[in-house]
Amino acid sequence: MPEHVPNVSQPLRRSTGASATFTAVLTGNPNCGKTTLFNALTGLRARVGNYAGVTVERKEGAMVGADPEYPVTLLDLPGTYSLSPQSLDEQIARDVLFRRLKDVPEPDLIIVVVDASNLQRNLYYATQVIELGYPTLVALNMMDVAQANGQELDLKGLSAALGVPVFPLVASAGTGVNGLRDAVNDAARSNRFPESSLTSKATDQLGHTYEPRSFAELPETFGREAQALEARLERLFPHRERLASAEALLVLSDDKVLNAHRELYPAEIADAVAAARSRLEAAGVDWRSAAIEARYARVFAIAQHVTTETTIPGDTMSDKLDRVLTHRVWGLLIFVGIMALMFQSIFTFATIPMDAIKKAVNWCAGTVTQLLGAGDLQDLIANGVIQGVGAVIVFLPQICLLFLFIALLEDTGYMARAAFLMDRLMSRVGLHGKSFIPMLSSFACAIPGIMATRTIESPKDRLVTILVAPLMSCSARLPVYTVLIAACIPPTQLFGFVGLPGLTLLGMYLLGIVGALGMAWLFKRTLLRGEPPPLILELPPYKRPVTKVILRHMWDRSKLFLRRAGTVILGINILLWFLATYPRNPAVDAGIDARRVAAAQAMLPEIRSAEEALRKIPEVRAQPAFKQLVEQFEALDKEQAGEHLRQSFAGRLGHGVEPLIRPLGFDWKIGIGIVASFAAREVFVSTMSVVYNVGKVDTGDSASTASLVETLKSETWADGTPVYTTLTGVTLMVFYVFAMQCVSTIAIVRRETNGWKWPLFQLAYMTALAWIAAWVTYQGGRLLGFV
Ligand SMILES: Nc1nc2c(ncn2[C@@H]2O[C@H](COP(=O)(O)OP(=O)(O)OP(=O)(O)O)[C@@H](O)[C@H]2O)c(=O)[nH]1
Ligand SMILES: [Mg+2]
C-alpha cells in the first residue's frame, strides 16, 4: 500500500514522485464499452466483444494526446456488476479500487463507464464507485443505443443527481472521446499543481467528488451500525480512511467479504460485524438486503427522473431475433447450421489463396535450391526452413477465415446466445452455460479460453472448464486436420452441396465438443463434485459488428500465427532437420550407389567403369527414352532417403515410439510427427514436410517440391499398401482432437491454477484419452471392414 495518504480536505492528490504518472481507472458493468473507450483513448487494441466478460485481466496503457509533462496512464478493468464480486475477474475491479494490489498505483481519477441504454442497472455500480470518494467522472456510453431505443436522457439532471461530471459518448464511433480526453488532461495537470489549477473548470467539477456522498438511504439502525464500523475501519486502516464508509457497508452486508478475506481484516472487525449483525437481526433488519434495497430505490428514482421515453417501449429487434435464435429447437438447428457454414467456407473460400501461397513457397524453395549447390546447407534451407515453415504458413487463409467467423460471433452478440442455448446441455454435465463461452473461445486457441474461465463463479466449475477447454479444436489443429483430410478423405459431394471434407472437419470439431462435455461430466461426478450456482447470463442486444474491430481481431490473430511460424515452428524445424539428417552413414550411400551403377550397366552395356556410370546418371535421368531406368533410380533415391532417415536420430526416436503407436495403425514416421508436435500441434505438418523431404536427392524435377499432400498419398508400408488410408487419416485426426500437445497451454494452466498438479494431470488424462480414442477408432474401423 502506498504510504502517501491523500486527505479529504486536499482536493486532488499531488503525485508522490516526479516520475509517477497520473493514473485514471476505467471501470463499470460488463459489456458497457470500457475496453472500446480504453482503445480509443490509448490507441491500443485490447480485445472487445459484444458479451459480458471479454476483459478478464487489467490492462494498462498510456493515454495519447496527454500533455507530455503530465502523462496519463489508463487502466482498463474487467466489468463488474457491483463491489461484491462473484468471480475472479470481477474481484480485480474491487481490489484496484480498494487499493489491495501492491503493483497497481493508487487511482487518481476514476472514469465510471455507464451504458446509457441500461441506465438503472449500470447506476447501481456507478453510485457504489462514486461513494468511494475518488475524483470521479461518468462516461455515459452507448448514447446511440439509448437513442435508438427511444430514450432521451437529461444529462444535466444526471450530473446533478450523481454529483459528478457526465460525458455522453459513443465510444465505438469515437464520438465525445476528445471531450473526455480533455477533462482527463485537465485533471492530470491540476493534480500536479493544485494551486495553479483552481480555476480549471474540470477540476472544479472533479473537486466536488470529495464531498462524502451516500446514495442509499439506510434504515436508521443499519445506518448507525455502519457508522460505528466505519469509525473502526478508519482507525485500523488510516490510509484507506476515505474508503471506510463504503467499505463498512460492504463488510456489513456481504458475508463473503469477511469469509473470503480473513487475512485482510483483524479479528476485531469480524467480532464487531458479528455483533452488529445479531443486533440488526434482533431489530428485524435484514442486513443482507437493507443496503442493496436502499441503493436500488435511489438508483431507480434517479433513472426515472432523468429518462424520458420518446417511444412506447415495445419489442426491440433483439427481442424478435432472440425468439428464433434462442428457441429450443430452431435455435439449436441454426447454431449447428452456422457451425457447418463456418467449416464449409473455411474449406472452399481458402483454397485459392492457399494455392497461391503454396506456389510462392515452392518457388522460394526452388530458387534457393538452384542458388545453393547441392549439399546439407541447401537441404537445410530448402527443406528444413522454407518447406517446413511454408507447410504451416499455407494455412494462413484458413486461420483468417476462422477468426473472421469467431470475431463475428463475438461482436454481433451471438456468443452469449450460444452459451444460453448450450445451458441445457451443459447442465446435464453439471456445468452451466457460462462455461460454454470459454469453450467456444477455445476454438480459436485454448489460452484465451482458459483465461475466460475467470468469469465462472464457482472455483470447482472453473477448474473443470479449464481441464476440458483444450479438448475444443483450436486453430493449431486446423492445419493438421486439413492436410490429413486432403490426403485421406475422398472429396465426395453429399446431397449435391456439402462436401465430405467439410463434414469431416465439422465432425472433428463436434467430437472435441462431445469429448469436452463427456470429460466435464466425469470430472463433476468424481474429482470436482458440486452444484453450479444458477446461471445469470446477460444477453447483450445484437449489434452490427464494427468492421474495424473485426479486421483488427483477424489481423492480430494472424500476426500471432505468423510470428509463431517464424519463431517456435522455425526453431523446431531446424532442430528436426538436424535430427532427421544426422548421423549420416556413408555405407548407405555407397551401397545405393553400387546398385545404381549395376542398374545402369545392366541397361547400357557400353558403360564400363563405375565412375563413368555415376557421371552418366544425371544425363540419363533427363532422357525420356530411359523411362524404365529412371524409375529404378527413383526407387533407389527413395530407398536412400528412407534408409538415412531410419538411421538418423529422429528415425531412432520414431522407431522407439513405434511399439506404442503401432496398435493405432501409425508407422514410425508418423511417430516422429506426434512426438515433435507435443510442443505445438501445427508442428505435425511441418515435421511431416521435413521428414519426407529431407535428404531427397535433388533431381532437378519437381519431386522435391511435390506437395505434402501428394507425398503423404504416395507413402507406403513395406508391402506396398498405402500408409495414409482413410482409416489412418481419421484415426490420426481423432488422436489430435484429444491429445494435449501444446506447451503454451500447459504453462497457462499452471499459472491459472497456481501449480503443476493440474496441468500435469491434464497432460496425462488427455494423452491417455487420445490414445484410447484412436485405438477404438482404428480397431473399430478395421472390424467394420475399413483398412
Ligand atoms: N452501439 C455502440 N456499441 C458500442 C459502443 N461502445 C462499445 N460498443 C460495442 O459494445 C461491445 C462491448 O464493448 P467492450 O469495449 O468489449 O466492452 P467492455 O465494457 O470492455 O466489456 P467487458 O470487458 O466484457 O466488461 C462491443 O461490441 C463494442 O463494439 C457505443 O458507444 N455504441
Ligand atoms: Mg473489456
CATH architecture of one domain: 3-Layer(aba) Sandwich
What gross morphology would you assign? elongated
Strand order of the largest sheet: 2-3-1-4-5-7
Structural class: mainly alpha
What Rg do the Cα atoms give? Answer: 32 Å
How many individual β-strands? 10
Tell me which ligands are bound. guanosine-5'-triphosphate, magnesium ion
**Average pLDDT number:** 85
- Counted by DSSP, the helix tally is 34
Q: Could you say what the CATH topology of one domain is called?
A: Rossmann fold
Q: Low-confidence spans: pLDDT under 50, at least 5 residues?
A: 1-19, 192-211, 697-705
Q: What's the CATH first level of one domain?
A: Alpha Beta
What kind of sheet is the major sheet? 6 strands, mixed
What percent of residues adopt helix (DSSP H or I)?
55-70%
Percentage of residues in strands: 5-15%
Describe the model.
By secondary structure, the chain is mainly alpha-helical. Among the domains are: 189 residues, P-loop containing nucleotide triphosphate hydrolases (Rossmann fold), CATH 3.40.50; 66 residues, no CATH class; 176 residues, no CATH class; 57 residues, no CATH class. Helix content is 60%, strand content 5%. The strands form three sheets. It has a six-stranded mixed sheet, with helices on both faces. The longest helix is centred in the last third of the chain and has 35 residues. The N terminus is likely disordered. The structure holds guanosine-5'-triphosphate (GTP) and magnesium ion.
